[in-house]
Amino acid sequence: MTGWVVIAGLGPGRETLVTPEVRDALAEATDVVGYIPYVARIAPREGLVLHASDNRVELDRSRHALEMAAEGKRVVVVSSGDPGVFAMAAAVFEALEAGPEAWRALEIRVLPGITAMLAAAAAAGAPLGHDFCAINLSDNLKPWALIEKRLRLAAEADFAMAFYNPRSKSRPEGFARTLEILTETCRDARPVLFARAVSTPEQALRIVPLPDCTPDMADMRTMVIVGNSATRVIDTPRGPILYTPRSA
Amino acid sequence: MTGWVVIAGLGPGRETLVTPEVRDALAEATDVVGYIPYVARIAPREGLVLHASDNRVELDRSRHALEMAAEGKRVVVVSSGDPGVFAMAAAVFEALEAGPEAWRALEIRVLPGITAMLAAAAAAGAPLGHDFCAINLSDNLKPWALIEKRLRLAAEADFAMAFYNPRSKSRPEGFARTLEILTETCRDARPVLFARAVSTPEQALRIVPLPDCTPDMADMRTMVIVGNSATRVIDTPRGPILYTPRSA
Question: Domain boundaries in chain A?
C-alpha cells in the first residue's frame, strides 16, 4: 500500500462549503488527524481511524501524519477553512523539512478550502472587493511588534484588512491595542465587520463604525474585517450590505 | 414566483473545487449571467437561460441580473474563483446602490468560492502560510500610483503577496514595473511562484528567485505569489515545495 498525506480544508463550518475533492480524499483515507473540533466534523466509518489532538501541538500532529504515511497509511490532515491560511499546511512542511530525508519522497497534497475571511465577507456583502491583507493577530509564534508594524503599514496602504485569531482569554490586550492603532492611523469612521461563528447555525454578524468598536466585540471564533477608506454600507430592508467598490 | 440573485464563485477551474451550495443554486436557477468563459462552464439544461457577456461590462451585467430578479427570476451571477475577490460581487453591489430603490428589497446572496490564490498556494505548498496581501495589478479601475504605493508598503510590512491580473497585452509595462519595485525594496532572492491556469489541465507552476524573474513569466491567466523574507523552498524528488513558516 502506498501512503500519502493530504492536507485538506473543511471550510469554516457549513457542510455545503466542503469541496467534493476534500470529500473524496476523506473517503479514501485510513487515518484522519487534526485539532479536536475539526476531527469531530468527520463522520466515523469502518476502516477509518480518527486521531484528534489538542491545540498548539501542530508540529507533533504533523510528524505523526508523516510517520503514518511513511508506513503506508493514507492520511488526511484536516484544517478548518483553508489549510494554507494560518492553518496546518505550513506546520506539515516545517515538520517535513526538519524530518528524515525519506519523508521527502512521500506524496503530499494540499486541498484548498473556503477560508473564514471569504465566508465572512460573502455573508456581509463584498468588503474584500478590492486590495486587502490578512493578518493573524495571535502573537504565539511572532513578536507583537511585527504585528503592530504590519497594522500601521496596512492602514497606510489603505488595504481592507482581515484579522484571524483576534482575541483570546490569555491575551485580551492585543485586540484592544489593534483598535487603538487603527483609530489613530485611519482617522475615519470606516465600517468594521465582526463575523462570529461564520457559516454555522450560531453565525452572528455585526457592522460597527471604527470609532465605536470595543475589544469585547471579538473572541477567538470571530473573524474581523476592517474596510478600507472607500468601504460602504448599503441599507436595505433585509439588513446592511458591506462592500468595497472595485475602484478603491 | 420570488426572484433572487445569487453571486456564486465557481473556483479557479477544476470541477471538484465547486462547492455543493453553488451546485445547488445553479440547479434552482432560471438564468445564469457572467463573462463568456465562466458561463461556458455551466451545463445547459431545459429551463435555464445562459446569458454570456464580454469582459469589462460588469455593471451592465449586474443591472441585468438585478432587473431579472425583480421580474421574479432566479439569477446566478457566476464568477471564477471567489465572487468577492476582484470579481462580480462588488460590481453587483455598485449597481444595487446606484439602482432603483425597489432593488434593495431583493434577496441577494454571495456564495464563496476557492479564489485563485488559494488554489495556486495549495498547488505549490503553503506560501501564504503567514500574513499576506492580495493586490489586483490591473489599473483599469484605479491609478497606477496607488498600486505602486501598496507594493512598496507591502514589501516594507514583509507580507507575502498574491497578484491578480498581473499582465495583459494592453499594459505589459505594469508587471515589469512591479518586478523592478520588488527587486529594489526586497533586496533578496526570495522565491516567486508563477502559477498558470491553476487547477486546470494546462496548470503550470514555476518557482523563480526574485532577481531572476522577468515580465514574460506572467500573463492574464497567471497568479503570481511573492514570498515574504522567510519563505522557503524544500527540494523533494517530487519537485519543489514552497512554504512560509508560521513564525514569519
Answer: 4-114, 117-243
